[in-house]
Amino acid sequence: xxxxxxxxxxxxxxxxxxxxxxxxxxxxxxxxxxxxxxxxxxxxxxxxxxxxxxxxxxxxxxxxxxxxxxxxxxxxxxxxxxxxxxxxxxxxxxxxxxxxxxxxxxxxxxxxxxxxxxxxxxxxxxxxxxxxxxxxxxxxxxxxxxxxxxxxxxxxxxxxxxxxxxxxxxxxxxxxxxxxxxxxxxxxx
Length: 189
Fold this sequence. Notes:
This protein is mainly alpha-helical and 189 residues long. Helix content is 65%, strand content 5%. The chain has a domain at 3-41 and 98-184. It is built from seven helices and two strands; from the N terminus they run H-H-E-H-E-H-H-H-H. The two termini are 24 Å apart.
């Protein structure tokens, strides 16, 4: 394939795919706030933050309650048994809040584009396919990621935004499937 062919069949579609995913992520997380249940507000936040800051925790995610790792296995198992039926939580702790919106957006777009390069290459290798097949394959790819990672994690550690996460695995993939069948890999009639 010529350089122009690579550009037309892989590079340009990958940029469009990256824009679709980047815009969907903005809609899903910011404009639509579909994931709001996973990042709720509590009026007790100042009290909780003061308490956690006073503990001088290292950055990390803490499962509470959790068995003491230094104990023998039998005692750890007894601790786990004592936790059953009681409330539990994850605490994700970060040090000072420092964030660069521009850098994070660039990193997000670059990661979308890297993913999109693989996706565009796969679609190119599939060749011309029907609209139904294209949408089915693209949604299938999204659902593979959702089921293998997000849903499997949800089984063990329930999340509060499972449905929005599933939509994140369907909506942009459907749009890519439409574009693929109607523009990039049309069946010749």
